[in-house]
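Run log // design_07
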């Protein structure tokens, strides 16, 4: 499992995480407000076993783009006011996509989903 931590001291705004190691798991933790704005996660050329993204804090992960066509399990948790605002998903042939949105998160998502076996979206209040 590979892990990337984005926070106030190590922000990931306007950054691209290019994943080129097949059959692995990637965990991206965005633990402070705006630490992952316009972050792009790109694993278009390989198959990912699992991709987990957690966006915690006010406006975290705004305009984040996930291009991961061949990911077995995608799990994105957006917690905090307007977190994951205008998030973009480009997924195909994925086994399971799970999006968790807490407290006005996930406004204006953009989806390009094809051949998704299971899609689950949970809207929760804090």
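design_07 sequence
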């Amino acid at each position: 499992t590979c892990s990337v931590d984005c926070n106030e001291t190590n922000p990931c705004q306007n950054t691209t995480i290019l994943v080129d190691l097949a059959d692995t798991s990637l965990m991206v933790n965005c633990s402070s407000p705006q630490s992952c704005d316009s972050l792009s996660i790109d694993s278009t050329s390989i198959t990912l076993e699992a991709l987990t993204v957690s966006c915690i804090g006010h406006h975290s992960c705004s305009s984040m783009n996930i291009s991961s066509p061949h990911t077995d399990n995608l799990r994105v948790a957006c917690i905090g006011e307007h977190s994951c605002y205008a998030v973009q998903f480009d997924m195909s042939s994925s086994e399971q996509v799970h999006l968790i949105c807490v407290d006005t998160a996930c406004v204006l998502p953009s989806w390009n989903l094809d051949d998704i076996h299971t899609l689950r979206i949970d809207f929760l209040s804090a």
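The two ends are 30 Å apart (CA to CA).
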